[in-house]
Amino acid sequence: MKYTAFLLVILLGACTSGSKDQPSVAKAVWERVKALGDDTPEAEGGGKATPTRQQITEFNVAMIQMNLQGEDIYPIMLPTHVNGAYVVYGNKFRQSLTLRESQITGTRGLGTDLVSATSSDDDPLKVLTPPERWPDGVAREYRFGGGGPSGRVERYDCTFARGGDAQIILAGTTFDVVGFAETCTGADGQIQNLYAADATTGRVWQSQQYVGAAMPAINLDILEPLTQ
Q1: Domain extents for the chain?
Q2: Over the stretch 128-179, which tens digit does the pLDDT of each residue have?
Q3: Nearest-CA neighbor of 53 among 200, 169, 203?
């Protein structure tokens, strides 16, 4: 099942740290994972190969997997830098995502860079919030290069719509989740983000997030969060 379709099914009702030797760890992860090939359940319908929970435990490293919507490439990324609440995940192609919990706050090397993304203090993407306590909405601001020294800024007022309960499987682990659709409106138009939030903690394990009009949305799986 395609990534977006699965999240829509949900919406319609249906202590780890980064390694000090990231390049060698990343190579080892990829060598182990690529051997899975297309025979793994995760590869159904595309070229996605995901490490098993045992492999992630053996490597003892935080890990995410991302995909540009519409493409058949699913790079695994590992933490390369930590700056307070922000974690930079990268791969061998010098592509990177910056996350604050599950919120994408920056991209590099994937196309048009997202310089930064900020949001309201009570944004459940960056502050773990059980689903029943999610706010009605948040404000979001996205900053891109160009348009002067301060760059080009898009601002949106966003509202959350709760969907159905479901289960998802990431790296062999099953999570009970609640689906949320977020609709954001601003001077630049309307955008939508999709989230599968842990039914207990509210951690967004799987999401589809806007990163700019010139870029496809990013599909993001949190395979193993970094805890500090």
Answers
A1: 3-223
A2: 999 999 999 999 999 998 867 778 999 999 999 999 999 999 999 999 999 9
A3: 169
Nearest alpha carbon to residue 45 among 15, 74, 21: 74
Residue listed under structure tokens 């995901």: 50
CB 223, CB 51: distance < 8 Å: yes
| pLDDT band for position 23 (cuts 50, 70, 90) | very low
Segments in the chain forming alpha helices (H): 3-11, 22-34, 53-59
What are 53-81's pLDDT values in tens digits? 888 888 888 999 999 999 988 999 999 99
123: nearest Cα among 199, 180, 65, 168? 180
Q: Which amino acid is at 105?
A: T
The structural architecture, per CATH, of the domain 3-223 is Beta Barrel (2.40)
Cα–Cα distance between 154 and 194 in angstroms, integer?
19
The span from the first CA to the last CA of the chain, in angstroms, equals 34
Give the DSSP letter of residue 38: G
Helix (H) or strand (E) segment spanning residue 103: strand 103-108
β-pair partners for 125: none
CB atoms within 10 A of CB 34: 10
